């Protein structure tokens, strides 16, 4: 299938998953559902759920309802991290993707709570996977042995989600980033931050997709490496766009790294070497992708798209 | 066994669980482990993990290692809610339990991230329950059928944890509380806030204890009701202590509700009726406790202790 057509279908499935799993706006606490939904529906590339979906497909996964709770949960976790990152105590950003940030619209207290709500709801959502298995078992569509196998797969996926999002993953990267604001960073520190802050959730996405399709440990470990390279390339491309793009194209302010005195790949290595790094990392991701027993033109195209993206 | 002796043993087991499951302070992101541990180790009654432990015991649970991940996770979730609640954007408290609050010691950005870290790590920790089951299965100490049964119990406990901590539980209560700051509240609104903000985690604790011991649905639903009454009584007692206690005894500032223009049971109903409400709620909790097929002198004593507590 044509890459663009497939991409649109995937995006549709992501929106379907979000619609199915985002909370209804009701009850006395309605405003928190509104704030959570406002944040998630602010747009974005939906990159992480697409990686779950496509890696699941790559390893032969067929029942897409099984990955939908994880797709929704992953986007919720990504979104909560942005909501908290934008808070006055953190980056203090008023705009993201051309829209006012959550705390600007709903106030700072609800900004904090909306992030908490999305993080918590992500686990609530991912845990709903078990209800799908229980339902299949109750209807006799699978036997106990198969239900147990699927339940264990789901639990492994949940563990991957939790650990890659936490202090040894995304939050850990945020922390080192925050702690070193206004300090010059070495390349090693920058690599550490990018690997945790950006790669970790992409690693989790591809690993969850593979895991839920029943891939073996070697394959899960291969996609983790692929994702690590993709995440690094993605983040360095971000650094490049911050100095080469315009506010209109990017949907957020440019030259923000310079303004915030941030060490980036560009400040550390210059534009040329940064571009080369993006290229090297994506070539390496594709190389590992080719060692897998299965072909994936889509993921290869996706990697190339991310490398050449303008926003 | 004597109540005080048992209580001390339980508290020891809670500390053991926390020690086993709190993150090691290492790595480039070490400060976040320090902040998380600082927050959890600030003391506190450890009420929620004790309710897990004692309800587990009540329903015949014997392998306490099985509830330890949940005990630690519950205290992490309770603690994260306090860390975020103390933030300048929320209640802006500099002291808690006689110690400086997390954001005062580590800065506001790390305050936000420490709360996030604890919430995320709570799920990481609770999910480790599955490793215990897998280990027993691998060692041949249980068969596949039993392993699946235990795994499902654990998943149900995880679902209870997630839902009671989230927007339909604790966070929901926080939201309605925050949204109504400086507004007069009706008794119905106050009950809603107390039920979600305070009772929800106590409900979760007792339900998880019962669930992990293999209690039936009726019993789980009974302990949910018991816990709801306990939580309400506990929160109203908090309101009472805020106007009747001293800073020394309470370990935090008194008359804070008046200072913050908060509607409480005391402002709404007066001291006498508030005291009566605490009594009625605890009597009701004990009444339901007595309908259970098993006796629990300890939980009954615990309820009475909470009602008569001075801090």
TrEMBL record, chains A, B:
InterPro entries, alphabetized: Isoprenoid_synthase_dom_sf, Polyprenyl_synt, Polyprenyl_synt_CS, Prenyl_diphosphate_synthase
Pfam families: polyprenyl_synt
CDD domains: Trans_IPPS_HT (cd00685)
Catalytic activity: isopentenyl diphosphate + (2E)-geranyl diphosphate = (2E,6E)-farnesyl diphosphate + diphosphate
Swiss-Prot/TrEMBL keywords: Isoprene biosynthesis, Magnesium, Metal-binding, Transferase
GO BP term, example: terpenoid biosynthetic process
Enzyme class: transferase
UniProt feature coiled coil, ranges: none
GO cellular component, one term: cytoplasm
GO molecular function: (2E,6E)-farnesyl diphosphate synthase activity; metal ion binding
EC number per UniProt: 2.5.1.10
Cofactor(s) annotated in UniProt: Mg(2+)
PANTHER family: FARNESYL DIPHOSPHATE SYNTHASE (PTHR43281:SF1)
Family: Belongs to the FPP/GGPP synthase family.
Name this polypeptide is given: Farnesyl diphosphate synthase
Species of the source: [Clostridium] polysaccharolyticum
Organism taxonomic ancestry: Bacteria, Bacillati, Bacillota, Clostridia, Lachnospirales
